[in-house]
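Structure ticket #2291
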Amino acid sequence: MNKQQNGIKLSFLGGVGEVGKNLMVLEYNNEMLVIDSGLAFPSDDMPGIDIVIPDFTYLINNRQKIKAILITHGHEDHIGALPYLLRELPNVPVYASKLSVALIENKLKEHKKIKCKPICVKPKQVVKIGNFQVEFVKVTHSISGSMALAITTPVGVYFHTGDFKIDYTPIDGDAMDMVRLAEISRKGVLLLTADSTNAERPGFSMSERKVGATLDNLFVQNASKRIIIATFASNVHRIQQILNICEKYNRKIVFTGRSMLNICETAAKIGELNFNKEIVVDVNNMDKFEDSQICILCTGSQGEENSALTRMANGEFNKIEIGSNDYVIFSSSVIPGNEKEINNVINLLYSKGASIIYESLAEVHVSGHAYQEELKTIHTLLKPKFFVPVHGEYRHLKAHSNLAKDLGMNERNIVIPEIGDTITINKNVIKKSGTVPSGIKLVDGYEVSEAGGIVQRDRMQLAEEGICIVTITISAKNGSLTSKPDILTRGFMTIKGNEEMLEEVKDVLLNQIITANFKTQDWSMIKGNVKKTLQTYFFKKCKRKPLIIPIIIETN
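Resolution: structure written out below.
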């Protein structure tokens, strides 16, 4: 079999059948390119978990084959897992745009021991990496420095859009390079993988400039009020418009929230945000100005627990107290799953007298992802032979595949992937050809653990069933009990009103352990018997299975 018949392989460790956690692997013979390394946020059944990242087992097992990591843009769902991947692959080069490099470097500083110097690349730049020739192509998205990838392989050209929309009037004036896409198309595109996030939405997405016009009007209409805007910290174009409006109406800007401060400082340092530094006021000096002179730009558009806006709503943000003269703008969309948290924050803000506006009431947000007509434009321009929809839940991928079929693509030339799938493509055929190790890892602080590990199971049990701590005190001299066992419960029954039950529990336990010889018997066996006795008792009495922790203490 010759090299062309071998085909290229595309494996998916995240970003398909889900929103977030984007990570793909392109492979030809013994060489691999990793495309993005993103995170996802934990679900309700993951207490104490900060973020969710892909399982890197497949990459670790093939570390010698990995030639580079290619980053399409600097959003967390594309770079958030990178520090954890670089722990395992410390010497692999990382290619990214100027802003993406700056954001990655900030992340790596937090992790300290990771030594990696990302390589900055520009649109139209071509990099030869082993058998691959990678060209970075300018696209528009909700963050600066977003790029598609045109990868020439021995089998043909593979084009990956990354996250994108077609905005003909972008804030920075740097539109998507449609001319280059047409030129790439003339060479022939073997395979296209494209953003499917908005594949169900008909028409065209609105330009980011539309949001600027709406915000400008809201500033005029609420000229006497203090304006608070919650948005995604990474939406540099949105932030640039807000800064421009503040300068226009002589308002000082107050940045709040760690990620907002970090990203704005980073973007300004490299020239991606441009504004008069004199309009920025520290939150501690804000009280020197009238409400009509202040705009607070903050995190918390998704109701995140420790975000700036949530702390303001709860009255826990020092120096900022929400009142009737506050006008709060949620300049963001609702990420599915965050509805409850956002509604809680909105209700708290209303209860404090604030006025509030959000996406369903005014055009204060536009999506950074292409709608159906934009997707059709990309398909029509590139004319790929094969297509794999990515970046979205299964319904989004299905809608995108239907769109490709409506444009005339043969159904046999379209494959909808699932996490763990490997798809093989040669000049004539595309097919699923196997699976690779996949799944998720849970990050708590800087520690990475297995999904469903013992810590996670304990947390779930604590949350759902409660805890019972039993303290048994024995004499060090003869091993006999010195008193009745002491029982402490939390999360499933209170002491008040259950005094009789607690005394009954102590008696039941006492009858079970009174004959135990603590001098000669294995304590772990005694503890096991205590657990069994209490588990049976509590389930019989209150249909609960608390986490039971027996403690044996010797006293002189």
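Closing remark: Residues 523-542 form the longest helix (20 residues).
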